[in-house]
C-alpha cells in the first residue's frame, strides 16, 4: 500500500491540497512503514495533483483542506481520502495504520483570512473552478 501526505517544510501535513508543493510518500507492508520519500508536485491544481498521485499508484491520501473538485478527481482515481488532518505527517500515517485516524472525504477547504481569493458560487467552497 502507498500513502501520500500533503507535506510542508516543517514535516507537517500541508493545509491546502490544491496548493501543495510536495507530498511525502510512504510505502507500507504488513501495516508498517518500510520506506518514505518526498515527491515534488511540480505544479498546481486539483486535476494535476490527482493525476500525479494516480500515476504514483497512491492508495490513500492524508491532507488538510481539500475542495470538492479534488475530492471528485481523487475519487475517480480510486484514492481514499483522509482530510482535515493537521500536525506531524509521520504521526498522521501512524494513526492511520493504527486505525485511529478519522476518515473524512467531504470538501473542507476553508482558508478564509489566509490571503487566498475566494469567490463563492463557482463550484465548491473555495471558488476554484474544477480543471
From TrEMBL:
Domain of life: Bacteria
Compositionally skewed regions (Basic and acidic residues) per UniProt: 111-125
InterPro entries to which the protein is assigned, alphabetical: Di-Nase_FeMo-co_biosynth (IPR003731), DiNase_FeMo-co_biosyn_sf (IPR036105), MTH1175_dom (IPR033913)
Domain Dinitrogenase iron-molybdenum cofactor biosynthesis: 11-97
Ranges for region Disordered: 107-131
SUPFAM superfamilies reported for this sequence: Nitrogenase accessory factor-like (SSF53146)
Protein's name in the database: NifB/NifX family molybdenum-iron cluster-binding protein
Species in which this protein is naturally found: Candidatus Limenecus avicola
Amino acid at each position: 500500500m502507498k500513502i501520500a501526505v500533503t507535506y510542508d517544510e516543517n514535516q507537517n501535513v500541508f493545509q491546502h491540497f490544491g496548493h501543495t508543493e510536495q507530498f511525502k510518500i510512504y510505502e507500507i507492508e504488513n501495516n508498517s512503514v518500510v520506506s518514505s520519500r518526498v515527491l515534488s508536485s511540480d505544479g498546481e491544481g486539483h486535476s494535476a495533483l490527482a493525476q500525479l498521485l494516480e500515476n504514483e499508484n497512491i492508495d490513500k491520501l492524508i491532507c488538510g483542506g481539500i475542495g470538492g473538485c479534488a475530492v471528485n478527481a481523487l475519487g475517480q482515481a480510486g484514492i481514499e481520502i483522509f482530510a482535515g488532518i493537521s500536525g506531524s505527517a509521520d504521526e498522521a500515517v501512524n494513526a492511520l495504520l493504527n486505525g485511529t485516524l478519522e476518515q473524512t472525504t467531504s470538501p473542507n477547504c476553508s482558508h478564509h483570512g489566509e490571503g487566498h481569493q475566494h469567490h463563492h458560487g463557482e463550484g465548491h467552497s473555495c471558488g476554484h473552478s474544477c480543471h
